Amino acid sequence: MTINLKQNDLSHVVAADREHVWHHLSQHKQYETVDPRVFVEGKGMKLWDVNGKEYLDAVSGGVWTVNVGYGRESIANAVRDQLVKLNYYAGAAGNVPAALFAEKLIEKMPGLTRVYYSNSGSEANEKAYKMVRQIAARHHGGKKWKILYRERDYHGTTIGTLATSGQAQRAEQYGPYPDGFVMVPHCLEYRKQWDVENYGERAADAIEEVIRREGPDSVGAIVLEPVTAGGGVITPPQGYWQRVQEICRKYDILLHIDEVVCGLGRTGAWFGYQQYGIEPDIVTMAKGLASGYAAISCTVTTERVFEMFKDAPEDGMSYFRDISTFGGCTAGPVAALENMRIIEDEGLLENTIRMGERMLANLASLMDKHTVIGDVRGKGLFCGAELVADRQTKEPLDEKRVQAVVAGCLAQGVIIGATNRSLHGGLNNTLCLSPALIATADDIDRITNAIDSALTKVCG
Ligand code: PMP
């Protein structure tokens, strides 16, 4: 059935939504007084809701996903053709798009060789954690079972991945959590924890301190976002990644990079880690992988990691004893293949670098006018503006006013985001911009102009 709505059906849709849909991240009480926002259509950077109101989407579908923009017929056609040929087969067998996409992906990831399919970022990370645990069981006599994660980073919504949530608010009320996940300090230089010259190296050394405290024999892996997303759009300080890599090598700790947000062009390269010279053992990705045209995630590993599951097959346990039912859907890899072709053929990585520089420069110039902007940071089309009540003390701006700025942009037809409340001083105070990689200079200027007006209205 194709959904074809007439104008008078739309109020019915809103009522059905209000009565029956349990929205993500929403206070449902608000729908007693305000209609839920329900979108009908998207094209490029634009969205239309049931009332016909047009929006410029500066967050790629709410959570930095629609990297190539809305309404891509070539992806829809590729998925349609594949679905009528073969929609699905899972378990111990492959399918054509899965093989071809894995090959194409690996071309972009020198040093990595194996692709494990599932459906969401959380699931991709869970798979990686399970790999680490199984490697510990098989190769380290049960040692090296701990996984380090970083304050302010986020890796998913399941109980296992929430055990690695560096954002306290997200994990509250869902515990107790499994053992063996240990937090290391964040590396946000704007909120310095050490008064030193080489901040990047110092922040990385803090990881080594945790490893020594826990015992290097007990630590199997560390999971890190190349640029922290929801925890405040945190770009790493100079020297940070080089030192992190050295520490991982020194203690034989697997480096797992979570590219769920940064992957597939968001930061202006295929993957964020490639801009910092990192050589990971495991890379996870989801969101922009098929730009939301189909659900797909991947856990990509080196051959060395893959080989660790091949020892002693006679015991019947020497394989990664895991499955993902919908990892066998062909829509994901076929959409991902076309998504990648678009990024390549339309030069979207280059556009991301150019437009990202413009967005960062626009935000930086707003700092002269709005003292409420404490810091701006970003990489590619992934920028944040941290709002503070006082530049000297860096006291975060209260959540009400931050949300009023977001609402002020929405009233002008521009959708922006704000980051989640996090542990240790990081409140919900960073405006977040992650438009599709097709953004033009006009789009960027309209987004930052909307922020300018909203800030003037809310903060004077
Ligand atoms: N990792 C990161 C860095 C994320 O930002 C997210 C989602 N916001 C996830 C993992 C989890 O992805 P999903 O919601 O697809 O499970």
Automatic annotation (TrEMBL):
<dbReference type="InterPro" id="IPR015424">
    <property type="entry name" value="PyrdxlP-dep_Trfase"/>
</dbReference>
<comment type="similarity">
    <text>Belongs to the class-III pyridoxal-phosphate-dependent aminotransferase family.</text>
</comment>
<protein>
    <submittedName>
        <fullName>Taurine--pyruvate aminotransferase</fullName>
    </submittedName>
</protein>
<keyword id="KW-0028">Amino-acid biosynthesis</keyword>
<dbReference type="InterPro" id="IPR049704">
    <property type="entry name" value="Aminotrans_3_PPA_site"/>
</dbReference>
<keyword id="KW-0055">Arginine biosynthesis</keyword>
<dbReference type="InterPro" id="IPR015421">
    <property type="entry name" value="PyrdxlP-dep_Trfase_major"/>
</dbReference>
<dbReference type="Pfam" id="PF00202">
    <property type="entry name" value="Aminotran_3"/>
</dbReference>
<dbReference type="InterPro" id="IPR005814">
    <property type="entry name" value="Aminotrans_3"/>
</dbReference>
<keyword id="KW-0032">Aminotransferase</keyword>
<dbReference type="GO" id="GO:0030170">
    <property type="term" value="F:pyridoxal phosphate binding"/>
</dbReference>
<dbReference type="GO" id="GO:0008483">
    <property type="term" value="F:transaminase activity"/>
</dbReference>
<dbReference type="GO" id="GO:0006526">
    <property type="term" value="P:L-arginine biosynthetic process"/>
</dbReference>
<dbReference type="InterPro" id="IPR015422">
    <property type="entry name" value="PyrdxlP-dep_Trfase_small"/>
</dbReference>
<keyword id="KW-0663">Pyridoxal phosphate</keyword>
<keyword id="KW-0808">Transferase</keyword>
